[in-house]
Amino acid sequence: MFSESIYIYFMACNSCSTGKDGQPRGCKNNGTCGTDSCNKLTVFDWLSNMSLPSGEIPYNWIEVRFKNGRKHYYKNTENLSLSIGDVVATQAQSGHDVGMVTLTGELVRVQMKRKKIEEDSDETLKIYRKATQKDIDIWTTARDKEEAMKVKARQFAIDLKLQMKISDIEYQGDASKATFYYTAEERVDFRELIKVFAKEFRTRIEMKQVGFRQEAARLGGIGSCGRELCCSTWLTDFRSVSTSSARFQQLSLNPQKLAGQCGKLKCCLNYELDSYLDALKEFPKTDIKLRTEKGVAVCQKTDIFKGHMWYAYEGEWMNWHKLTSAQAKEIIELNNKKKKVASLEEYAEELIEDTKTDFENVVGQDSLTRFDSPRRKKKRRNNRNRNRNKRKPQRNAK
User: Fold this and answer.
1) Minimum mean pLDDT among 30-34, 73-77, 234-238: which range?
2) Lesser CB count within 10 Å: N end or C end of the chain?
3) What is the model's pTM?
4) At what angle do helices 191-201 and 133-159 cross, to 10 degrees?
5) Which residue in 165, 214, 163, 216 sits closest to 186, CA to CA?
6) What are the chain's domains?
7) What is the pLDDT of residue 383?
8) Residue of 152, 145, 180 lying closest to 166 (CA atoms)
9) Under 8 Å CB-to-CB from 107, ≥6 apart: which residues?
10) Mean pLDDT of 190-201
11) β-sheet bridge partners, residue 74
């Protein structure tokens, strides 16, 4: 019960907590609740409790979040009193859109500076008003149509034999336009597809191509680590990930283990890469050969955590000799002075491996079958002895 309450406190709002009967209610808002506690890319306003100095005017730009973490910044020209979680009607290229306020105050200035958004730009959009009940009804009705539209749109693309995948659909707040997000390996001619969409759905259509990482960020999910995807929770900039990151960390180059849900290399391969590169500075380069009187040795393997290196003589590739990084450096320094050591066996450490595996009982010292009812042993009747007694003749019988 304690762990359940902790989970609700950190990961859920009141609308999706446990009910009175102990059953979980489940989030019926799909990440669009007003408390903004279980949304993607949520920002904590740590300046909300601080008052502005006398004479300072609050920053009049607002951060508004739309479906799947899409965020834009709008100017509060009407000086509306807005707080995080308010649903507002914002300006769009045509008509208006409906979104949720996710950040106000001075932190908006910091975010705009970080994302290099100019305040006095020609493309500056503004907030019209707080969303009325009519605006919210139109918005929610349009959102309910998106899933059924996505199924039909994918079928239309298959019928036209287009090499593309429609990953998501987003309606504008006033239901006047629908944006279709798709992924494709190559350039796609979807002019005929737009005609089919406009005839079927009877609204303005906009096609927008996104990358495979952006698609995974929009859809979300659980990674192999058991946590939510970084791209759908906090990661906003997608840096390139190469296989060299896995090589430096001595990971197995297995595409099934190194690839994420987007089909590309996992972004987390870059997280600890700098630490590995700093640790490898203490090791000699693996392409440097060790010259001994017995022969020339080539590096076969490196253990960054234990600081060990394995070398094998040319021609004796099956016999590895373990050295520490300091010993390898010592031999290299002697080779630079045109000196040779007798052999690697003088420096090599004996590798003692304990092949015996001890399994511990994580639930205690008691047996896991202590609650099972013991089986009763069935008593076997010794029929052979009985048969023998029957076959023996009776001596006293006449």
Assistant:
1) 30-34
2) C
3) 0.65
4) 130
5) 163
6) 1-29 (no CATH), 31-131 (no CATH), 146-210 (3.30.300.20), 217-279 (no CATH), 283-346 (no CATH)
7) 55
8) 180
9) 43, 45, 46, 47
10) 91
11) 62
- Residue carrying structure tokens 């430096």: 248
Q: Which of 323, 317, 281 is nearest to 296 (CA)?
A: 317
Helices (H), the chain: 2-11, 106-114, 133-159, 191-201, 212-219, 230-233, 243-248, 255-258, 273-280, 325-336, 383-391
Residue 222 bridge partners (DSSP)? 228
Residue 88 C-alpha from the chain's centroid = 31
The reported pLDDT for the residue numbered 373 is 62
- List phi, psi (to 5°) of 121: -95, 155
Confidence category of residue 360, pLDDT binned at 50, 70, 90: low
Is residue 351 scored above 50 in pLDDT?
no
Residue with tokens 């391969």: 269
Q: What is the pLDDT of residue 11?
A: 40
Q: Listing from the earlier edge strand, what are the strands of the sheet with 290-291? A: 290-291, 296-303, 308-313, 321-324
Coil, helix or strand at residue 226: coil
Nearest to 31 by CA among 2, 79, 70: 70
- Sole residue written with tokens 């903004």: 36
Helix (H) or strand (E) holding 61, with range, is strand 61-65
Helices (H), 202-254: 212-219, 230-233, 243-248
